[in-house]
Structures are given as C-alpha cells and as structure tokens.
Amino acid sequence: PTSGEFRVRVDGDVPRHSTVECLDAMGRIVLQQAYVEGSPVQSRDLAPGVYVVRVNEPSGLTLAQGRLVVQ
Question: Of 1, 31, 43, 65, which residue is the least packed, with the fewest Cβ within 10 Å?
Fold first, then answer.
C-alpha cells in the first residue's frame, strides 16, 4: 500500500518514450507519465482504492501490469 509515491520496475528492456498509467476501478486513466526506471510516481492525488498500473510502450503494447493499493 502507498499514500504518497511508488516506484515501478520492469524486468527487461523498456523502449524510450514508454509510459506508466494508473487506471481506476472503472478503467479510466487517472494518472499517466513517462516511464523512467527507478523514478518515483506520485500517488498523492489518487483517492484511496485499488488501481491497475501498466507500463506501455509507445505503440500501446502493455509491457507490464500490476496492482496498486492507495490508502
């Protein structure tokens, strides 16, 4: 669980200009930013709940996906 920020790590190569997205329970993108290995993603503005976190390459292909719990 997080209440401020989190970090996303992907095993393997990630193309330049890939993005990190957080989707709410309705599937809406509520956060999107450039993917930078090891850089923090701010979650302070997200309401408490469970989110899907995806890393997408520029073509839209999802490279990695996970869950995030915001308290």
Answer: 1
